[in-house]
Hints:
Shape: elongated
Strand content: 15-25%
Number of helices: 5
Oligomer: single chain
Structural class: alpha+beta
Distance between the termini: 106 Å
Mean pLDDT: 85
Helix content: 40-55%
Radius of gyration: 27 Å
Number of strands: 6
Strand order of the largest sheet: 3-4-5-6
Amino acid sequence: MIPRHLFIGVAVLLLAALGMSLYVWNMRGRAAAVPVTSSDTRPVVAPVAGPTENISLFVAYDDVGVLNSQAAQIPLPSGRQQRAEELLRALLAIYLDKSSPHRLAPGSEVRSVYLVDPGLAVIDVNAAFADGHRSGVLVEELTVASLIRTLSANLPGILRVKILVEGKERETLAGHADLSNFFEVSSVNQLTSQLQSTP
């Protein structure tokens, strides 16, 4: 025969296990009922360490279809690749502002800039940049020219630029600007000069 104290101990443990199971089942139901909030999944960019420098940003103006040079002062790191990324992030900060003359989709960002010898720069933007970009020949060309002019004006020696989206090639930015080829900086400079001289 089973001793009475052992029988009581086993019964208490079984009741505790049953009580815990009911509690967990109840909590799981409550957790499922709580709405899931979307969180910002963008990576956190470390603050830039470096002296403040004068730079030229080539800002697109949709209403008149031109690029205008705009002076700015931003801290720039010493590394050439990091400098390139900070230059384009400063430009995008203007475009993401509510009063921007050339609005980009919220969440648009430059993921990275790769400087490949000799004279090749590869700009990698995120999906929000391309997927949320407004469609139109002039609007898309202004975006591309703005990125390339800003980069080449502040980092001498860049002759060609390639634009990727999430690290992959894409045919167009938003249906018009051809991203499948390399952009010659001299051709982009000539195009933007023509745009600036147009009345």
